[in-house]
Write a structure and sequence with these properties.
Oligomer: single chain
Order of helices and strands: HHHHHHEEEEEEEHEEEEE
Distance between the termini: 63 Å
Largest sheet: 7 strands, mixed
Low-confidence stretches: 144-148
Structural class: alpha+beta
Strand content: 25-35%
Length: 335
C-alpha cells in the first residue's frame, strides 16, 4: 500500500468508526457536536484526497465504481457535513442512516479494492460493533426495564404511587403521593394527592427553581421514539416551572434553567390545600398520535423548614437522579 493510499484509507476508516460511535450516541440522546464535527473532518479529508489525488477532479474517474456508489458516497458526505448542525431529534434519525448508507459503500470496497484490503477485517469489525451499539441504543431509548406498557386515554387512566427505590426502606419522614394520569385532547391530565406534614413554598413567580424553594410536584414526559423531553413542576402556592430538554444529558450541560425554560402559561394548573397535605391538577399539552408510547415519571420534593427535602419518584431509579429517561414508565396513548 502506497503512502497516499495509507493516509486516504486511514482517514476513511477513522471517519467510519467515529460515525458508528456518533450514531449510537445520537440514538441514546448523548450526541456531541464535537464528535459529529470530527466525523465531518475525517470524512472530508478522505473525500478531498480522493478527488485530488486519485480522481484528479475528473468525473469519469470518480464514477469508476459506479453511479450508485458515487451518489451514496456524496450524499453521506453531505449529511455528515450537516451533522454538527442538525437538531437533536433529527440527528437521532439521520446519523444512524448515514452509518447504514456508508456501510453499503465501505464494506464492498474494503473486500474488493486491493488498496483497502489490509483493513477489510477491521472495517468488518467496526461495522458489526457499530450495528450492535446502535441496536442496543435503540432498545435502551425505547424501553423501561421491568415495566409493563400501560394505557391512558380520555376514558382510561393509570395510577402511580411514589416511592424511594434507591433505598431498602423509605425514610421515616417519607409521605405518600398518589397520582392518576389520563390523556385527552392532545394533553396529559395529571392529578396528584400528596400527604404532607408542612405544606409550603417560597416561590413567588413561574419558572423559578421550585425544588429549592419548598414543596414541588414534578412531571417528566417524552415520546418513547424521541430523546427530547419536558419537565413540569407545580408548587402548593400555584407557581409552575416548565422546562424542555433536547436530549438525556442536556441538564448536565446547562449553566442556568433559563437555557431550557419553556412557556409556563402553556401549562394549566390548579392546587388546593387538604387536611393532610395538598392536591395538584395539571394539564400539559403534549400532542402525539393515538398508539404512541409515552415515557412518564412523577417525582416530588417534600420540603419542611429545617431539614433536607424528602425525594420520591414513580420510576425505578436505582440512584437519586430523576433525569434518567430510559427508566421512566411506558404508557400507550389510546382513544
Amino acid at each position: 500500500m502506497s503512502a497516499f493510499d495509507l493516509v486516504t484509507f486511514s482517514l476513511a476508516f477513522v471517519a467510519y468508526v467515529l460515525l458508528g460511535v456518533d450514531a449510537a450516541a445520537r440514538v441514546e440522546g448523548r450526541g456531541r457536536r464535537a464528535l459529529s464535527a470530527a466525523v465531518a473532518l475525517f470524512a472530508s479529508g478522505h473525500a478531498l484526497l480522493l478527488w485530488h489525488g486519485r480522481y484528479e477532479y475528473d468525473l469519469a474517474l470518480a464514477l469508476t465504481h459506479g453511479t450508485a456508489v458515487f451518489a451514496i458516497f456524496h450524499v453521506v458526505w453531505l449529511l455528515v457535513l450537516l451533522g454538527p448542525f442538525l437538531a437533536t431529534e433529527l440527528s437521532a434519525k439521520v446519523v444512524p442512516a448515514c452509518f447504514g448508507l456508508a456501510s453499503i459503500v465501505v464494506l464492498p470496497l474494503a473486500f474488493n479494492n486491493p488498496a483497502a484490503m489490509p483493513l477489510r477485517f477491521v472495517v468488518l469489525l467496526a461495522f458489526v460493533v457499530g450495528l450492535l451499539r446502535i441496536g442496543a441504543a435503540r432498545a435502551r431509548a425505547s424501553r423501561v426495564d421491568g415495566q409493563p406498557k400501560l394505557r391512558i386515554g380520555a376514558g382510561r387512566s393509570c395510577a402511580f404511587e411514589l416511592g424511594q427505590p434507591w433505598r431498602d426502606q423509605v425514610e421515616a419522614s417519607f409521605r405518600s403521593t398518589h397520582v392518576v394520569v389520563r390523556y385527552s385532547r392532545g394533553a396529559l391530565e395529571v392529578e396528584a394527592e400528596l400527604e404532607d406534614d408542612e405544606v409550603y413554598s417560597d416561590a413567588t413567580a413561574d419558572n423559578q427553581r421550585t425544588w429549592e424553594l419548598g414543596d414541588a410536584f414534578e412531571v417528566f414526559v417524552r415520546r418513547a421514539d424521541e430523546v427530547a423531553y419536558s419537565e413540569v413542576h407545580v408548587t402548593p402556592n400555584g407557581h409552575k416551572l416548565h422546562l424542555r430538554f433536547e436530549d438525556f444529558d442536556q441538564h448536565r450541560r446547562i449553566a442556568s434553567i433559563d437555557e431550557v425554560a419553556a412557556d409556563p402559561s402553556l401549562i394549566e394548573a390548579t392546587v388546593e390545600t387538604l387536611a393532610d397535605g395538598w392536591r395538584a391538577r395539571l394539564r400539559i399539552p403534549f400532542p402525539c398520535p393515538q398508539g404512541s408510547a409515552l415515557a412518564l415519571s412523577f417525582c416530588r420534593y417534600d420540603a419542611s423548614r429545617g431539614r433536607e427535602p424528602v425525594l420520591s419518584t414513580s420510576s425505578p431509579h436505582p440512584v437519586i437522579a430523576f433525569h434518567r429517561p430510559t427508566e421512566w414508565t411506558l404508557v400507550t396513548v389510546v382513544g
